[in-house]
Amino acid sequence: MVASTLAEVARLAGVSPATASRVLNGSARKPGPDIANRVRQAAESLGYVANAQAQGLAKSSSGLIGLVVHDIADPYFASIARGVQVAARNQGRMVLLATAAGAPEAEREAVAAFAARRADSIVLAGSRSARKEDTDANSALATELDRYCANGGQVAVVGHPVVGATSGTGYHVVAVPNEALAASLAADLTVLHTGRFIVVAGPESLFTSDDRIRGFQAGLAAAGREPAEVFRTQFTRSGGHAAGLSLARRIAAGEKDLCIFAVNDVMAIGVAAAIRGQDLRIPRDALIAGFDDIETLRDFQPELSTVHLPLEDIGAQAARRAGGDMDFIPITGHVALRRSTHHEE
Amino acid sequence: MVASTLAEVARLAGVSPATASRVLNGSARKPGPDIANRVRQAAESLGYVANAQAQGLAKSSSGLIGLVVHDIADPYFASIARGVQVAARNQGRMVLLATAAGAPEAEREAVAAFAARRADSIVLAGSRSARKEDTDANSALATELDRYCANGGQVAVVGHPVVGATSGTGYHVVAVPNEALAASLAADLTVLHTGRFIVVAGPESLFTSDDRIRGFQAGLAAAGREPAEVFRTQFTRSGGHAAGLSLARRIAAGEKDLCIFAVNDVMAIGVAAAIRGQDLRIPRDALIAGFDDIETLRDFQPELSTVHLPLEDIGAQAARRAGGDMDFIPITGHVALRRSTHHEE
DNA sequence: CTGTTAGCGCGTTCAA
DNA sequence: TTGAACGCGCTAACAG
């Protein structure tokens, strides 16, 4: 990558580099209009494109915002990414994207890379976990983040704080009320359903999953119901599918009147697909509810009952907080009951 | 953003900056192991993080790859983005993300921003259009790209070349065989369906949409069928939905034996949702096929017949070509007939 | 093998 | 208001 430099533009316009800089980039001092035009024309004719790296070096700030997600192809993260993107554009910044598949070590690498690029802020999306085998990687991540913050970086985490991060300056959390919302979902479902509940959840120690389980159980308890059985599987569509196959067997074997709460929509769809693949029907043979309200899944039939989360807003808020916009509003969601949890007449 | 510098590390280790650089970053010359350790320890204890901006300035190359999509929350683009991301990681580079909503002017801005950041290469995803009102913006985009290439940048475009770009060096196209695949789809559908065909398409002059229409019509013609009626709408889910409402009315009014080809899956889902909302059923009252084979939509019922496109591969190939990996294989897809186009017994 | 020097392209003091 | 000089952090030539 080579290109014409500010010096070349200045020479062609017959002015000093300093003046050219003042004209072409936002500066407090406004050079004379006559000279300004000469510079602009010179720049235009040379196809001058300011070197953001050099600008960043000189100003020690990059105009970059780093985003770490598990998987950008997952609609949950894609929506958040859109929000971050929109906010970034409004702030005149660009988004650096990294995917980490939920592995703390990969997240640490991403954070380090962002730090190297001198990103002004970093948004960490995707649920944290406290799994025993991740302890070391988690603390390495925390160390990396702490160092980044210590150097003046701003980080926003969606959902839960990073395990072990000393919440110093520059550290923000966009809290998602998973527990409370799961509790309302349970409350609403107990009105519709008098039978048993089963929760299809992610692996233990995954905060988001655990919060939603806890909230759901609390909601059931508040309604005087037995705690739901918890079925552990992967936090993905295929995890849901596996759970669904297993549950379908039980239903086929005579288990009736089940309401299944999958802790996210993608898992719920997996459960539903598996159950329907066994000649069973929803909601006739089992009710299903999810969580997240993924847009792409809204045309699914029967329409999936779920908890709506303003994902794009969440991403935007994360970017704004990390960007220094302090007037933020908390994240709220709401239960959306649809046909997948309505017993047929 | 401040951080300790290479000079500080060097001083603490009691060596020169050059030596420190040689140790901490990949250099041909390998300093003595004793000194190397001293440097590494100094770096570690200072929490040194190399400044990629400065490195980029010195080496005039940034390790950045720019990606422009219409909308990162659209599963089509999200899949491509994942591919780009994976390829970028394999090349040890990072992805800069921009969304442009398909507007050539926004795309031009993104390209300019990437150029300013001295991205090594740029991937442009999302269908081009030749709409009359976009002529100016398209040529501005072409100019920007030409300049970028002239300065040594590499650009890969998914689908169609940019209108007016002089295909100089550094300009690559990842061709998607839309026309041929649409023709095979038509051929296969004529075996299953003896009635009429309708194409639900995007606005005129949108290359991807137009190619798929043309291929489909050619496939019909080859099978001795009448050309399909073409229904123009938005290239989105809601465009499909609108078309679906209109078609549902016609079906309700007695029109029978229709096979609807929506030029992408998201539109197809919109069509299906609209039709089902009118108490009609698929495939009983109308067959529907889409294009793209979006992963998130695979659990839709009835399973959507479509044309499979290796979206992630497409993204990865684009990144690889732009990255200089020249041993590439062409993109291929295949028809995937599923239940949405099988007449019920 | 190591240290010294000179830029990479730009912003920003300072003096004029 | 304009220009000259310095420095941002690092790499790459050169010299020792």
Please provide a brief summary of the model:
Two copies of one chain form a homodimer. Chain A has 345 residues and is α/β, with parallel strands linked by helices. In chain A, 45% of the residues lie in helices and 14% in strands.
Structure, explained:
Chain A is of the alpha/beta class and 345 residues long. Chain A has three domains: 6-59, 434 Repressor (Amino-terminal Domain) (Orthogonal Bundle), CATH 1.10.260; 64-174, Rossmann fold (3-Layer(aba) Sandwich); 178-308, Rossmann fold (3-Layer(aba) Sandwich). Helix content of chain A is 45%, strand content 14%. Chain A has helices spanning 6-13, 17-24, 33-46, 52-59, 75-90, 104-116, 135-150, 178-192, 207-222, 237-252, 265-277, 311-323; strands at 64-69, 94-99, 121-124, 154-158, 171-174, 196-201, 229-232, 258-262, 287-289, 306-308, 334-336. In chain A, the strands form three sheets. In chain A, strands 2-1-3-4-5 form a five-stranded parallel β-sheet, with helices on both faces. In chain A, strand 1, helix 5 and strand 2 form a beta-alpha-beta unit. In chain A, 53% of the residues are buried. Chains A and B meet through helix 4, helix 5, strand 2, helix 6 and helix 11 of A and helix 4, helix 5, strand 2, helix 6 and helix 11 of B. Chain A binds a DNA duplex (16 and 16 nucleotides) through helix 2 and helix 4.
Distance between the termini of chain A: 68 Å
Give the % helix of chain A.
40-55%
What does the average pLDDT of chain A come to? 93
How many β strands of chain A by DSSP?
11
* CATH level-two architecture of the largest domain in chain A: 3-Layer(aba) Sandwich
Shape assignment of chain A: elongated
* Strand portion of chain A: 5-15%
